[in-house]
Amino acid sequence: MTSILKSTVVALAAMTTTMTTAASAESYNANHFFAERHSMVRGPYVEFAKKVAEETNGEIDFTVFSAGSLLPPASSLQGVRDGVAQVTYHAGTYTPSELPIDNLIGNMAFYNTDPLVMAFASTEFGLTNAEQQAEWKANGVVYGGGYSTSEYFMQCNTPIRTLEDMQGKRLRMAGGAWSRFAEFAGAVPVSIPSSEMYTGLDAGSLDCAVAAADALDSFSLKDVVTDMNTLAIGNYYAGFEWGYNVPFWQSITPENRRVLFNEMAYYLGEHRIAFDKDVEEAVQSAKDGGMTVVDPDETLTNALAEFVVADEATLISTAKERGVADPEAILTAFKAIIDKWDGLLADVDTTDVDALAALARSEIYDKIDETTYGVN
C-alpha cells in the first residue's frame, strides 16, 4: 500500500470515528419558565448547559428552553417525569398535593430570610432527607439542587407605609404562607403567576406585587410600580432549580453525574450572587425613575413577627391533612440544617463564587455517591 493510500485510509477511519462519536451524543431538553435574561436561567441553565457539554465531551448536551416555551409552570413536574424535559426548574407551590413535604419546608420562608442560607439549606435537605427523597422518587424526579429568590418586597402602585395601609389591598402572593400573611394583615391575596404581575398592576386589579425586587427589571414592573416597602416577606425556594428525569439520570455514567454535581454546586452560589446584583441594579434604576422606597414601620414588622409565630401550627396541620406523617420532626430537621448553614456561611466570602462552590461541594455534593444516588 502506498503512503498516499495509507494516509487516505487513516483519514477516512478518523472521519468515521468522529462521525460515529458525534452521532452517539444525544441532545437533551432543559426547561425553565423564567426568561433567559433572568439570573436563575442565565447561569444555572444557559452557562450550566455549556459547561456540562464541555466537561462531558459532548455526551450531555442540553438544549435550553426558557420563558415557558417547552413547559408551562404548572406542568414542569409532570413534564420532567414524562421525559418532555430531562432537567427542569419547578416551583413547588404549583403542586402542593404531589409535594406536601416540599411545600411544608417551602412555607418556612419566614424562619430565616437570608436567601443564601435558604438556597444551601434547602439543597442539603432535598438531597439528604429520607422523607423528602421518597417524595421526589414517588413523583418520578431525581432532585439535583435548590435555589432561593432574594427577599420578597411589596412593590405597589399605591403607598404602603403602615399596617393600616394594607387593609383591603390586593396583593399578588406566591400562595401558601404568603397568602396567609396577607389575610393576617387584612389584605386580599391574589394568586397569579409572576408573568401576570405587570398586567395586574397596570390594569389596577393589583395594588402590590409581592416578589423579589429584580422583578422591577426582569418583569418590567418599574414601569407600573411607584412605591416599594422593604418589609422582608420571606423568600421563595420551594421545589427545585434542577430536577432530573429518572431514565435520563440512570442512563448517564457515574462520571457524568459527578460533572452535574460539580456544576450544580457552582451555580448554586453563582445564581445567588447574580440574583442579588440584579436586585440592586433594578431597585436603583427604578429609584432613578421616580420610585419611592420606604422601610416598614413598627406596625408592619410587629404584624409579620406575630404571624410567623402563629403560622407554624397551620403549617403542621396542613401537612398532616396532606398525608405527612410527622411534620413536626421534618420541621425540626430542616431548622437544624438552616441553623447549620447560617453558621457556615458566616465564615465565607459570600461574594466569591468559587468559595461558595467549594463549600457546597465539601458540605453537600462530595458526600453523595454518584454511583448510587438516584439509581437505587
Automatic annotation (TrEMBL):
Signal peptide coordinates: 1-22
CDD domains, per the entry: PBP2_TRAP_DctP_like_1
Location in or out of the cell: Periplasm
GO cellular component: periplasmic space
Domain of life: Bacteria
InterPro entries for this protein: DctP_fam, TRAP_DctP_sf
Pfam families attached to this UniProt entry: DctP
Protein name: TRAP-type C4-dicarboxylate transport system, substrate-binding protein
Protein source organism: Loktanella salsilacus
